[in-house]
Amino acid sequence: MDLFYKNRMLHLALLALCVSFTGCGGGLNDQPDLGLVTGTITFEGSPLSGASVTFMPDSGRPATATTDAAGNYELVYIRDTKGCKIGHNKVVITSVVEGVNEMEAEGDDGAPAESTKEKLPAKYNTDTELEADVKAGENTINFDLKKS
C-alpha cells in the first residue's frame, strides 16, 4: 500500500473516531476534566507550519490543533472548548505536502493529478512513538522532530 493511501486511511480513521465521539448532545456536565495544552513543533530545528496535531487519550475524545507559521499550536477539545483530556495521550503529528503527480492523469484531458506526501517519518504519525501526559491547568508540550 503506498504512502498516499496509508495517509488517507489514517485521516479517515481519525475523522471517523472524532465523529463517533460527537454524540447527540449532552451538556457541559458530561465533559471530562481538561488541561490547556500549547506548544511549539519544530522539524530539524525549523518551525513546522501547517502541521496537524492530535492528542489521543487512552479513552475518550481526541483533541486537535494546527500549527501556525511559527510552529505554535493550541489544542481544541470540541468546538470552542480549548484543552485536552487529562492523563496519558498518544500524539500524532502529520504534515502533508501537496504536489503534482505527473505520472497520473485525471480524465481524458491529460491534466496532471494532485498527490500528497507525508514529510514526517512514520514514527510521528502512522506508527507514532510520541506520548504526552496532560495535567490539570496549563501545559506547554514542545516537540523537536528529527528525520531519523
From TrEMBL:
- Identify the stretch annotated as signal peptide in this record: 1-25
What PROSITE patterns does this protein's entry cite?
Answer: PROKAR_LIPOPROTEIN (PS51257)
Which superkingdom heads the taxonomic lineage of this protein's source?
Bacteria
Q: Keyword Disulfide bond, does the record have it?
A: no
Keyword terms, alphabetized: Signal
This protein is called Carboxypeptidase regulatory-like domain-containing protein
* Annotated source species: Gimesia panareensis
